[in-house]
Amino acid sequence: MKSSHWSKLSVVLLLAVFPIIVPSDYYRHIFIMALMWVVIGSSWNLLAGYTGQISFGHAAFFGVGAYTAGLCVTKLHISAWWGMLLAGPVSMLVAFLIGCVCFRLRGPYFNLATLAIAEIFRLTAIVWRDLTDGMQGILIMRTFRNKAYYYYLALILAAACIYAIYRVMRSKWGYYFVAIREDQDAAESMGISAFRYKTFSLLISSFFTGLAGAFYMNYMGFIDPEVVFSLYFISIMAILVAIIGGAGTIWGPAVGAFIMVLLQETFRSSFFGIFPKWVSEAHALAFGLLVIFVIRYMTNGIVGDWVKVQRLWSKNKEQPLASTGS
Amino acid sequence: MDVFIQTLVSGILIGGIYALVGLGMTLIMGVMRIINLAHGQLMMVAMYITFVLYEFLHIDPYFSLLVSMPALFLVGVLIQKYLLNPLLRIESIIPQNQILMTVGVAMVLTEVMRFIFHSDYKSVKTPYSSAVLYISSIAFNFPMLIAFGIAMILTAGLFFFLLKTDTGKSVRATAQNKDAALLLGVNAEWITQLTYGLGAALAAAAGTLLLPIYYLYPDVGGQFTLKAFVITVLGGLGSTVGAIMGGLVLGVAESLGATYISMALKDAVGMVIFVLVLVFMPGGLKTLTKV
């Protein structure tokens, strides 16, 4: 227990000084994206991993957050940073309405309903040109040239998200969430209002996803509906990130996010130029194969099945294996 | 009035193909109780098979049904055998593990195709691709008509298989009650593989039939996965008759939406119907017919 505490602390410290040691904008960008995915993956995990409601529509909250920030500039003519304040509440409002519809459903029906609603958001954002400028997207000026500022913002966001989820899961709510995941009918017969606590879980989850969206707008400076409301690049990625790391664990999605971003980037750069160019085209393929492997052999993710990984490691100790992650 | 009838006709014609997509999905849903989120991607693979056969061997798309369907049947059986069935024996935190696996499969299929063929748009231009048949003033697109015909034949074949053959009866028995079927000597493991294979083969047929009138790129699968589950839910999860009706309803609703609302909102029409059905009629159309 002690040693794992130390390893976690050292990881956090390493992340805190990262932009100071590494001045390269390229690596900073990769880590900023990874931290953003930590936020999205962790908040998806609160709703799905802990509360058992597998959402295929987190792109709706991400997109709403991003568009809240973007519309601050184009419609309200104020800084996109106000979006960081507004995105959370706006996403929660949207989430509440979605929850009212979707929480009437269970199991596969719930999965499909969230997916469909996120698609409706995407199509609406494309068609409603007066508000969103449609496929033209929203382009804003970035505030800082130095990526270190964005890096620290992302780091704070990720830390706040993980800490909030950690606190929630330690509180009475957390136990209610898990009770609903394990057996909704049993939980209800014990007097837990499933609808109310699922909604609470969804609200917290959407708050952070919306914040991540607003951050994305501020950081990238450009959004369009196909990017921020994307089923495959946001909703499904959020699921895969959490699944790879381990759904229902605090650190799982964070580990998954870093694995996803680093793996994709390693392939995209053809292993930093060592391998021939065509390898770079397999970056998404490599991640897909990893997903299949993890679901098949480490069902609870890398963190969730860490004991299994360790056992495997101690069995072939003669092979030197670098142990990464916390 | 002509516009309305024309819209209806093209909606029904495309609806026939949608029905084929939905049938495969609903079979899998009925027997395995999972949503197959790789359905459109299986279809996309079949489209690439057809494309390759046409481009390099100059085989007519309709004849390549004989290749694409068995090929996808095999792919389906292998996916079920080595990726989905083993998950049943594993305890996990998230119950819908198999659904997530189909997401992974979908991703890998798309990326493999992107790796081989790149993201360019491809299409198969046959001499009859734009042939049109006129009945009074209503135009029937010729390839659509053939596709609709073949789709109906395949559907009839599937019903014959499910209703009249022993294996088909085993499939239905497994769908109704897996444990009871197991007790009565049905090899449920093989039935699930067969069902996934059949579902994949039906998706393959739909893909191949669509190719002469559609275009092809690796991400095309995603939109058909969406359509497939809209159809399935519309018809009622697990209902074959419902899937056919769902396919026709979606086809007509989309083409009405495209004509009378806007081309861009065509896909949104399906989604809105979908959410309404989920909320107000969760059993789908099958609750109306009791089939």
Distance between the termini of chain B: 34 Å
General form of chain A:
globular
Helical proportion of chain A? over 70%
Contiguous helical run count of chain B = 12
Description:
The complex is a heterodimer of chains A (326) and B (291). Chain A has 326 residues and is an all-alpha fold. Chain A has a domain at 15-229. Chain A is 76% helix and 1% strand. Chain A is built from 17 helices and 2 strands. Chain A has a two-stranded antiparallel sheet with strand order 1-2. In chain A, α1 packs antiparallel against α7 (147-170) and α13 packs antiparallel against α15 (283-297). The termini of chain A are close together. In chain B, α3 (65-84) runs antiparallel to α8 (188-210) and α9 (220-235) packs parallel to α11. In chain B, strands 1-2 form a two-stranded antiparallel ribbon. With 291 residues, chain B is an all-alpha fold. The longest helix of chain B has 31 residues, at 2-32. Chain B has a single domain (2-289), classed as ABC transporter involved in vitamin B12 uptake, BtuC. The mean pLDDT of chain B is 87.
Q: Helices and strands in order, then pairings?
A:
The complex is a heterodimer of chains A (326) and B (291).
Chain A (H helix, E strand, L loop, with lengths): L1 H20 L3 H26 L7 H17 L6 H22 L4 H21 L1 H4 L5 E2 L7 H24 L1 H11 L1 H6 L4 H27 L1 E2 L1 H4 L2 H15 L6 H17 L1 H4 L9 H15 L3 H4 L1 H10 L11
Chain B lengths: L1 H31 L6 H19 L7 H20 L12 H21 L14 E4 L2 E4 H23 L1 H11 L1 H6 L4 H23 L9 H16 L4 H21 L5 H15 L5 H4 L2
Antiparallel strand pairs in B: 1-2
Question: Quick gist of this model?
Answer:
The complex is a heterodimer of chains A (326) and B (291). Chain A has 326 residues and is an all-alpha fold.
